[in-house]
Amino acid sequence: WSSCSNDCGDGTMARSVQCSSGTDLDCSGSKPATSQSCRVTSGCGWTISAWSDCDATCGAGVQRRSAVCDSGLPEDCTSQPVVVQSCYATSGCSWLQGDWSTCSRSCGLGLRQRSVTCSSGEDSDCVAGE
């Protein structure tokens, strides 16, 4: 038999079958099969897509990618790659500004305050001055 025609998934093996006299009519019975199906998985590997963008724009999120075994059957491949991972993005972070307080003095120079926080909860995720 030849080697399997596919190194990942279903394939075919072939062989030559001839009557020893060189003429098929000289041999009795039905002619043996010249091909048979085979299945090999030693050459199977994963086709992996690129990571998606982080599903969050400010703070913790998740990235995903696909991993497909070349045969179409995950069990034919070994060690499935990681397809989900955590990510952290800051591109969509912005400063959140609270209302100004009333003046600390009713007459003369006083002080008004307000809270300013980054939308992620981490001030370092927001760029100073924005």
Protein traits:
0% helix; rod-shaped; two-stranded antiparallel ribbon; mainly beta; 130 residues
Tell me what the structure shows.
It contains no helices and 8 strands. It is mainly beta and 130 residues long. The model has no long low-confidence stretch (mean pLDDT 94). It is rod-shaped and about 125 Å long. The protein starts with 8 loop residues before the first strand and ends in a 12-residue tail after the last strand. The strands form 4 sheets. The protein has a two-stranded antiparallel ribbon. Helices cover 0% and strands 28% of the residues.
Topology:
Blueprint lengths: L8 E6 L20 E6 L5 E3 L10 E6 L2 E3 L14 E6 L5 E3 L18 E3 L12
Antiparallel strand pairs: 1-2, 3-5, 4-6, 7-8
Query: What is the helix content?
Result: under 10%
Q: Indicate the proportion of strand residues.
A: 25-35%
Spatial order of the strands in the main sheet?
1-2
The helix tally amounts to 0
End-to-end CA span? 73 Å
Radius of gyration: 35 Å
Class of secondary structure makeup: mainly beta
> Would you report the number of β strands?
8
Mean pLDDT: 94
H-E string = EEEEEEEE
Largest sheet: 2 strands, antiparallel
Runs in which pLDDT lies below 50 for 5 or more consecutive residues are none
Q: What sort of overall outline do the alpha carbons produce when their principal axes are compared?
A: rod-shaped
Short description:
With 130 residues, the protein is mainly beta.
